[in-house]
Structure formats: C-alpha cells, structure tokens
Amino acid sequence: MIFLRSIGSVRSLRHFSSSGPLTLKTGDVFTKKRVFSNEDVINYSKVSHDSNPVHFDAECARTLGFEDCLVHGMLVAALFPRIISSNFPGAIYVSQSLQFKSPVYVGEEISGEVQATNIRKMKDKSLVKFSTKCFKKGEHLVIDGEAVAIFPSLSGE
Q: From CA 52, how far away is CA 83, in angstroms rounded?
C-alpha cells in the first residue's frame, strides 16, 4: 500500500486509490513497506553477481560484527524507484545518492520513503528531486539519500 503525506505545520496521512489522478507537489511523501526474504537475497545475488558471504553465511556476518546475514543495501534501495514509478508511470530515474546507515536483516520490515523536495518545470517535462530514506523498527534510519527523476507529467495518470 502506498501513502501520500503532506508536510506542513500539520502532518496528515492521506491514502489515494486509483479512483482519481494524483498530482505531485513539493513536500509530498510516498511510502512503501517491504519485508525482504532469503529468496529475495538469493535472487538479487544471482542477478547482480554479488556473492559476498556476508549475505549468505551467518558465521561470516557475525565475525564481522553483524547479528546475522545482511540484505544487500542496493536491494533495499530498490524501494525508491518502485515507489516513484508505481505512482508516476513513465518517470525516468536520473540519479541516486545513498548512505547506508545501519544493516538490514532478512525478515525485518523496512519502510521506504520518498519526499519531493524540489520540482523544476522544463518545456514538456519536470525534473523532480526527492529525499529518499528507509527505516526499520519505526524510525530507525537505515538508508539516507537523494534521487532525481524526470517526469513526463506531474500527474500519476
């Protein structure tokens, strides 16, 4: 389920169904929750060719100071384009910066959040900058970053 929250002096949570077009405004926040499984980690490893044992060998992960095997950080960060493209089909990712703040383990519920921080209209498109964050256990920040995408329209039609 994707949510939109307008940021201002009062925080409100609004849920939009597909019954009407959604228009993006600066300050809008979209979220998506996801729990990553062992199968997700294995499939990501096959596609990315990232076979670092810290993702598959619990003893190796513990030796390095982690509680258990890690979910690939880039797999977790894949929440950001999913959130944007599911609300605004045709949006094209231009850039993404990431800071990995804390490990993510298989089975943890992760909440990805993108907030529109700047919208610059061009001729027939818009360039949108987002603050991107992932949290676990409510408000524990695990990924922080920024993304830029080109939108053919600011409406989620």
A: 27
